[in-house]
Amino acid sequence: MSDAPQQPTLPGDLAPVDERPQLPLLTRRVLTQSIALVTTALAVAAAIALPTGYVVRMPGPTFDTLGTGGTPVIEVTGAETFPSTGQLRFTTVSALGNRDRTVPVARLVRAWLDPDEGVYPVEAIFPEGTTSEQTAQQGQAEMVTSQESATVAALRALGRTVVETLTAVSTDPEMKAYGVVLPGDVLLALDGTPIVSFEHLGTMLDKIEPGTTVTLRVERAGTPQDLEVVTSAGPPAQAGGVDRSFLGVSVDRSFETDPVVTMHIDDVGGPSAGTMFALGIMDLLTPEDETGGQIIAGTGTMAIDGTVGPIGGITYKMRGARDDGARWFLAPAENCAEAVGHVPDGMRAVKVATLDEAYDAVVAIGAGRGDTLPTCS
After folding, report:
1. What are the start-end ranges of the E strands in 155-233?
2. Is residue 317 a contact partner of residue 59, using CB atoms and an 8 Å limit?
3. Exposure winner among 63, 135, 334, 361, fewest CB in 10 A?
4. Are 77 and 151 within 8 A, CB to CB?
């Protein structure tokens, strides 16, 4: 007889039964519905994550042009600078997405629900025929130009030394100066009067009848020489509608300044910081505490002649300024209509058209007279 243990025998010699609860059989209908549900869920998830033809714009960071912590935004060499108790902040707009990588649906929904953000077709921000890299390069070039224009405008406003050089790049074949003024010629004087700036040259030509022969002194290959040039008729002047004399020469403008101003700002493109750069330079080079401890933000391009030009995204820039504590915002006059109804609570948007107006506005705000300034309303 075997010593192995015997299995107990159930009554009636029945086989053992598994008493765990049994799951219902998966019918073909249930299986089909489950697969369809999972497929739909995956499709919805994929659609939400897929890129679209849109990008998102929102308030960007602001930068204090008077900031002294770390590397200053504005560095002046060759002149004494003075501290300020306040801030002059230039503003930016941030963009999420580009032509290479647009924003997925889920992020667009969030932007649609956020009053501080906006959704735009990618073509509205990144023009057709340009890559994201090309757009970024253009923005950097515009930033460099805006810094130069702001420096020249600010130093001229303060009566500091700015030497401008006009170098011929090309001459319009339809103009009588064609073949007389050559690329590379440096324009020195007109009829014996030294040419101080591009604007100065234009003013002198406005006083000359088209078709007049003038003496243009140039420097060619390092040697001064006088050229006899017949002026041509250009578009009518705005004032009086009389014909204007033109040389028809495209020039490159270069500048030497005393003091020397250097800007330190990375990863920001576009020309819209020009006005605040110019104000920052003027504040640093004057002993007065123009800001009076106030946080003043703003935007606007700056032309060499001191004109404040319009920009894009002013509503986002005002919100960004609000987030960084600014109660005052300098807005280009040409952007005022767009700003109306979008000025954040507790902020005043001051309308400015020139550098002189912008500087006077800063002084008024710092002196507690900001409520007297014209606003975007």
Report:
1. 161-171, 186-190, 193-194, 213-220, 223-230, 232-233
2. yes
3. 334
4. no
Rounded CA gap, 329 and 62, in Å? Answer: 12
- Say if CB 86 and CB 65 are below 8 A apart: no
pLDDT above 70 for 329: yes
Sequence-distant (≥ 6) Cβ neighbours of residue 97 within 8 angstroms = 51, 54, 55, 56, 103, 122
- Cis omega (within 30 of 0) for bond into 194: no
Report the DSSP beta bridge partners of residue 85: none
Give per-residue pLDDT as tens, 145-184.
Answer: 999 999 999 999 999 999 999 999 999 999 999 999 999 9
The 8-class DSSP code of residue 22 comes to P
Helix (H) or strand (E) holding 198: helix 198-206
Give the gyration radius of the chain's Cα atoms: 34
* Contact by Cβ (8 Å): 229, 247: yes
Tokens of 185: 């010629």
Query: Where are the alpha helices (H) located in 210-286, listed in sequence order?
Result: 274-284
Q: Contact 212/179 with Cβ under 8 angstroms?
A: no
pTM of the model: 0.81
Query: Does residue 259 have a cis peptide bond before it, meaning omega lies within 30 degrees of 0?
Result: yes
φ, ψ (nearest 5 deg) of residue 208: -115, 135
Of 55, 75, 56, 57, which Cα lies nearest the Cα of 65?
A: 75
- Tokens at residue 160, please? 């500091």
What does the block give as tokens for 315? Answer: 């509503």
What's the sign of the alpha-carbon dihedral 11, 14, 15, 18? negative
Which residue spans within 240-327 are E strands per DSSP? 245-246, 249-258, 260-263, 295-298, 301-302, 308-309
Q: How confident is the model at residue 137 (pLDDT cuts 50, 70, 90)?
A: confident
DSSP state of 304: T
Backbone angles phi, psi at 74, to 5 degrees: -115, 125
Other beta carbons less than 10 A from residue 141's beta carbon: 13
What's the pLDDT band for 138 if we cut at 50, 70, 90?
confident
- Stronger pLDDT, 254 or 133, i.e. the higher one: 254
